[in-house]
Amino acid sequence: MAVAVKTQDLPRIKGVRYIPKENYYVPGHRTCAGCGPALQYKLVAKAAGPNTIFVGPTGCMYVANSSYLCTPYAVPWIHAQITNGGAVASGIEAAYQVLIRKGKWEGELPNVIVMGGDGGSVDIGLQAMSGLMYRGHDALFICYDNESYANTGIQTSPTTPYGGNTTFTPPGPAIPEGKKLFPKDPPQLVIGGHPAVKYVATASIAYPADLINKVRKGLNLKGPAFLHIHAPCPKGWTFDESKTVDIARMAIQTGMWVLYEWDNGEIKYQHRPRQYKPVREYLTLQGRFAHLTEAHIEKIQAFVDAKLKAPGIPVAIPLPPPRAVA
Ligand SMILES: Cc1ncc(C[n+]2csc(CCOP(=O)(O)OP(=O)(O)O)c2C)c(N)n1
Ligand code: SF4
Fold first, then answer.
1. One biological-process term from Gene Ontology (predicted)?
2. Residue 321 falls within a domain, yes or no?
């Protein structure tokens, strides 16, 4: 006889006043002051609660967070390789399903959450993330997006915006804009290619209650879910560490980041401003864009304008010209 899998039902919260007081990502870690990914970790851990297992593909949230015998996670966690967060989570979830089927685990199925950087989610870790989504494991995959391979010295990643100055895309006479490519679209990548996935959403540290509700929705749902969370990085983006939340909010006010959820084929938007501010107001707050010319800023504005005509729908991305043959 099939054994019923007991699952959790995490309640929706009405606003910031109702954010749980309990912390499962506690002080004592070694991330930079004002680290956006650390703040989102804290919020996700509050949302998920004690019956949670975090899976961490290598990145700032593991290397900067944990040193020998000292970590900030107050729930079980495992450090995966940057390539295989999705595979490790798949194995954990599948093992629990077997234990439940054999009557060796009588509790609720834990929340299995992969917390990967953009590199560990949609670049080096893409195949394992996609495998988890494709096979339909009951797990939540979170891509915390600091728009670079931060832990190895702020190298460019596929989600680094056009024009971003990183250690691999320094602006100079040959390439004045720095990064030449426009970013990948992680939510659309997951939605478009994975029939088992029914819930995909974007979130931001600037809207913590919305973030918590999306985490809980993804966890309550049976099957795989994907969240793309905007998490500014003061070190890599070059801004004052007291401004992390302001920068995250400005991204939404200028349309550089759009908050939405894709729920079984239906798109719903959250916190859409009546009037978007020019992208310049976001770009000028960050040293990584300090070298951009008017023409570069116009190119970014045109990209955002096209995206905002149908937010959540991929836009045609301008490609760089083919490389000149030496
Ligand atoms: C296969 C492999 N390639 C490269 C590395 C080196 N490496 C460690 S952390 C890291 C950056 C991770 O970037 P991301 O996943 O975006 O997370 P972040 O550091 O930005 O939080 C890299 C490239 C590695 N550990 N394994
Ligand atoms: S480099 Fe960025 S992501 Fe990494 S710990 Fe510092 S602020 Fe956080």
1. small molecule metabolic process
2. no
Asked, for residue 4, whether it belongs to a domain, the answer is no
- Check: CB of residue 61 under 8 Å from CB of residue 115: yes
Count of domains for the chain:
1
Residue 210 lies in a domain: yes
Spacing of C-alpha 326 from chain mean position: 39
Residue range(s) defining the domain that contains residue 271: 22-309
Q: Angle, nearest 10°, between helix axes 126-135 and 85-101?
A: 30
The CA dihedral of 54, 60, 66, 68, to the nearest 10 degrees, is 120
Q: Return the CATH number at 199.
A: 3.40.50.970
Is residue 31 lining ligand 2, measured as CB closer than 6 Å? yes
Cβ of 32 below 6 Å from ligand 2: yes
Give the closest residue to 315 by CA, choosing from 158, 230, 188, 162. 188
Is the C-beta atom of 64 inside 6 A of ligand 2?
yes
Cα-only R_g, the chain:
20
pTM of the model: 0.96
- Say how many Å lie between the CA of residue 205 and the centre of ligand 1: 22
Ligand 1 centroid – CA 144 distance (Å):
13
Question: Is the residue at 301 inside a domain?
Answer: yes
C-beta 232 within 6 A of ligand 2? no
Verify whether ligand 2 is closer than 6 Å to residue 119 (CB atom): no
